[in-house]
């Protein structure tokens, strides 16, 4: 990434702001926000156990499979995983892998839904 001036600054302390994502070897990452988000997501899935869930995964690859494994872990029984990935669309048995770019796949899903 190449960021240009002015770089974003923290409104509280004035230091350089950074995205809240974990990067390799990143000892300064604060995981508390991520942990709260994961807890909220897990609560959401748990509260909908009696409902069918569709997980649409966009562009997650196999080199770092965290997103793929997370999506697969929330899909079971009558639930559906739709994996949109032009090169790595393989899915577990019974799920839907579509070899298409994310935006094109989402546009097709949206068009189909409005029919």
Please describe what this structure looks like.
- The chain has 115 residues and is α/β, with parallel strands linked by helices.
- It has a domain at 52-113.
- Helix content is 31%, strand content 11%.
- The protein contains three helices and three strands.
- Strands 1-2-3 form a three-stranded parallel β-sheet, with helices on both faces.
- The radius of gyration is 18 Å and the shape is globular.
- The model has no long low-confidence stretch (mean pLDDT 89).
What's the topology here?
Blueprint: H1 32-47, E1 54-58, H2 66-73, E2 80-84, E3 96-98, H3 102-113
- The SS-based structural class is alpha/beta
Q: Per DSSP, what share of the residues sits in E-state strands of 2 or more residues?
A: 5-15%
Q: Please mark out the parts with pLDDT under 50 across 5 or more consecutive residues, or reply none.
A: none
SSE string, helices as H and strands as E: HEHEEH
Instruction: Write down the Rg.
Output: 18 Å
Mean pLDDT: 89
- Largest sheet features: 3 strands, parallel
The spatial strand order of the largest sheet comes to: 1-2-3
Quote the distance from N terminus to C terminus.
40 Å
Please estimate the helix content. 25-40%
How many β-strand stretches?
3
The DSSP helix count reads 3
Global geometry? globular
In short:
By secondary structure, the chain is an alpha/beta fold.
Q: What are the defining features of this structure?
A:
three-stranded parallel beta sheet
């Amino acid at each position: 990434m190449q960021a240009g001036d002015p770089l974003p600054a923290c409104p509280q302390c004035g230091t350089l702001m950074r995205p809240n994502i974990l990067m390799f070897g990143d000892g300064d990452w604060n995981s508390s926000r991520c942990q709260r988000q994961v807890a909220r997501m897990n609560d959401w899935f748990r509260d909908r156990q009696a409902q069918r869930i569709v997980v649409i995964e966009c562009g997650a690859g196999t080199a770092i499979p965290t997103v793929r494994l997370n999506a697969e872990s929330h899909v079971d029984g009558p639930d559906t995983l739709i994996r949109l990935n032009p090169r790595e669309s393989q899915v577990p048995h019974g799920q839907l892998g579509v070899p298409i770019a994310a935006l094109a796949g989402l546009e097709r899903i949206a068009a189909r839904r409005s029919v």
